[in-house]
Amino acid sequence: MTIGASGGTRILVLPALFDEANKLRHFTVEVMRQLERAGIASVLPDLPGCNESRAPLAYQSIETWREAATDAASFFGVTHVLTLRGGALVAPFRLPVLRYAPATGSSILRAMVRARMISSKEAGIEENREALLELGRHQGLELAGYRLGPRMIRELETAEPADGAALTNIAQGDLGGAGLWLRAEPDHDPSQADALAALVVAELLA
């Protein structure tokens, strides 16, 4: 998805990952629309294996996603990157990055494993976290409806947002209210979208 004309400042938006991407989809698009009103264009790519991409998700890893993000940045001629949550893990190394509530790979993986264990327990199946992770490191796992390959599991365990070109970290507290990714179902908060867009614009125009 592209919003706004090319030329001038153009942002590559790297979305939250996995189930968090679903919960923040509306929020993400509204932030992009607010940026357009400030004269800032943006591009939201589908990472390989996600949404309209035909690539198998089970073959993807943090590294393949970072390579895809780097290629997208070059193809669309972006000047900056805005990451949401786990999107910070796959940001290109050489572009200025603004990170909203950046998450570590281990925290994302931990939440997805916990969700699987709760679901399994409700179905009368007892699962052990360490046993699941050991299986995932070698054979992959299905978590929250996503079939993740062993390389993705291993990389998520240690993945950290890259610091190289970070401009700023925007905390959830800067927007007010709890993060939308914490809600049980996808939802939207216009005031939070407005607040994030305003902070991004202020940083870019400072």
Gross morphology is globular
- Identify the CATH architecture of the largest domain: 3-Layer(aba) Sandwich
CATH superfamily placement of the largest domain:
Response regulator
Strand element count: 8
**What is the CATH topology assignment of the largest domain?**
Rossmann fold
> How are the strands of the largest sheet arranged?
1-3-2-4-5-8
Please bin the fraction of helical residues. 40-55%
What does it look like?
The chain folds into two domains: 2-103 and 162-205, Response regulator (Rossmann fold); 105-160, no CATH class. 43% of the residues lie in helices and 15% in strands. Strand 2, helix 1 (19-37) and strand 3 form a beta-alpha-beta unit. It is globular, with a radius of gyration of 17 Å. By secondary structure, it is an alpha/beta fold. The mean pLDDT is 93. The longest helix has 19 residues, at 19-37. It is built from six helices and eight strands, in the order ββαβαββααββαβα. The strands form two sheets. The protein has a six-stranded mixed beta sheet with strand order 1-3-2-4-5-8, sandwiched between helices.
Summarize the structure.
It contains six helices and eight strands; from the N terminus they run ββαβαββααββαβα. The protein has 206 residues and is an alpha/beta fold.
Can you tag this structure with a few keywords?
six-stranded mixed sheet, single chain, 2 domains, AB_hydrolase_fold, 206 residues, 6 helices, two-stranded antiparallel sheet, alpha/beta, Rossmann fold
Task: Give the helix/strand layout.
Blueprint: E1 2-3, E2 10-14, H1 19-37, E3 41-43, H2 62-76, E4 80-84, E5 97-100, H3 105-122, H4 129-139, E6 141-143, E7 146-148, H5 150-158, E8 166-170, H6 190-205
Parallel strand pairs: 2-3, 2-4, 4-5, 5-8
Antiparallel strand pairs: 1-3, 6-7
